[in-house]
# Entry
Amino acid sequence: MKLTLKACRQAVLTALINGALALALMLLVEFSLSGSLAMTRPFLIAGLLVALVIFVAQFFRQLRLCRCNENGAPNK
# Structure
């Protein structure tokens, strides 16, 4: 359980950072194309989807890395 919480914490942190960066990039492109900085619903949904996909991938990756560290195997 401790490994799962550690992996979840690291995955959430990574997902939030990458989701926020994706949202900022979308807003920057929107501002450069249209000249207005409007936070629309599709941008929010896309940012949340990016964060969700990254969370799932990072969770399984971090869980595997934590288990490898626990067993004493070297990281790859």
Remarks:
- Residues 2-34 form the longest helix (33 residues).
- The mean pLDDT is 84.
- The radius of gyration is 17 Å.
- The chain has two helices and no strands.
